[in-house]
Amino acid sequence: VFSNNNSLDDESGSIEFLYSGSPGNDKEKIYINNTVFEKNLRPIRILNNSFSNDSLYTYINNCTFYKNEGEVISKGYQTPTNIANSIFWQDQPLEEIFNYSNPDSIFKGYNIHHSLLKSPDCLINGINYCGDGMLYNFYPEFRDTMNNDFSLRSCSSAVNQGDNLSIDTLGIFF
User: Fold this and answer.
1) Cys-Cys crosslink for 3: which of 38, 75, 146, 163, Cβ 3.0 to 4.6 Å?
2) pLDDT tens per residue, range 7-63
3) What are the angstrom distances between the C-alpha of 143 and each of 43, 76, 88, 110, 164?
């Protein structure tokens, strides 16, 4: 759980990944799994300063973002980012949650699917930027946010709505 963290300055994130490339490696990966980000200022910032596009991939799976401020995920277009089985219970508009420096292509490099957004949809300028299995605009039925329990109650509509492929690739079988 990352809770109540602030960035060091106006530009950085509470958690910041800086990648400059490494000789001999074609692709590097960042995995952020099973993590709660609660009431942080700019929780995740990913900087890819390598000279190669698509050299750094980010995977965010089974994460919960709750009442954070600023950009929730900030990255450049050259960092493909897959988000699955995650909950974004945020009060800001999509453009601020998934920040990218060019507002005309805010979702470039994002693959968001099988997740829950507090917003009514994933439309920006009439274009749907999210994939399959999305849930919109209903409270996820957290068990007890006052005591940092972000597990879901059994009555939540989000239970069993995720993408099992994300879990299967981690080697977790039921």
Assistant:
1) 38
2) 766 666 778 888 876 655 567 889 999 999 999 988 898 887 765 656 788 999 999
3) 22, 35, 16, 29, 22
Measure the CA–CA gap between 82 and 151, rounded to whole angstroms: 22
Please say whether the beta carbons of 52 and 79 come within 8 A: no
Q: Dihedral sign, CA of 12, 17, 22, 25?
A: negative
Written as six digits, the tokens of 117 are: 């957004």
The whole-model pTM stands at: 0.87
Query: Rounded to 5 degrees, what are φ and ψ at 103?
Result: -65, -20
What CA–CA distance (Å, rounded) separates 54 from 49?
A: 11
State how far the alpha carbon of 149 is from the alpha carbons of 35, 118, 131, in Å. Answer: 12, 18, 28
